[in-house]
Design brief:
Length: about 200
């Protein structure tokens, strides 16, 4: 079986919330899914063309700000549900920070610590962004006291993706702190070992 297009899944998923232009689609993916998913214009537009060819989306007119507006068709909703039901492909491990640390003995003194400090700051910034997203989700829930079961479930699933990001950021922060402490201990012990 061919690997499902994750871009196709992201595009159809975003369009399931309403019709939008390619630009609006990219913005929605960045703003709503950005803490765990990324798509470029170079991926979105060819995907929209392919989805239009298969009848999964159709053009519905000019956009509010720019471009043509696309909407999902019943065929697209069926395709989205099929893609969602397939097992997800494992993400290949590609972490530039870990690659640099693995070969960090080639770096000048202090450079690995600088990389770890940057990782700490990135984790803290992520946690701040997640806190803002969580506050928005909580506000949306508080405004809608009479949510139906489907909306409650959708909200719980969206909160689960946010929680994953929060856990990952906290883990990265703890790992960076632990790694910095280990390097500091080595630096403190090195003069004693030489002396």
């Amino acid at each position: 079986m061919a690997r499902p297009s994750q871009t196709e899944l992201a595009v159809l998923g975003a369009l399931s919330t309403g019709a939008m232009s390619g630009y609006e689609l990219r913005r929605a993916i960045t703003e709503v899914l950005g803490h765990f998913w990324h798509e470029s214009f170079g991926q979105i537009y060819p995907c929209l063309t392919a989805l239009e060819t298969t009848g999964a989306v159709r053009r519905s007119g000019p956009g509010r700000t720019s471009g043509t507006v696309f909407e999902m068709t019943p065929t697209g909703r069926t395709r989205l549900r099929a893609l969602l039901a397939e097992p997800y492909p494992p993400a290949p491990a590609r972490n530039g920070l870990l690659l640099r640390l693995f070969f960090g003995s080639e770096l000048p003194p202090g450079a690995p610590e600088s990389l770890l400090t940057q990782a700490q700051e990135a984790a803290r910034e992520s946690l701040e962004r997640y806190a803002a997203v969580r506050a928005d989700l909580d506000d949306d829930t508080a405004l809608d006291d009479d949510l139906d079961d489907d909306t409650d479930r959708a909200q719980a699933l969206r909160t689960a993706t946010l929680s994953f990001g929060e856990h990952m950021a906290r883990a990265q922060l703890a790992w960076a702190q632990e790694s910095l402490a280990a390097l500091e201990r080595l630096d403190e012990e090195a003069p004693r070992a030489r002396g």
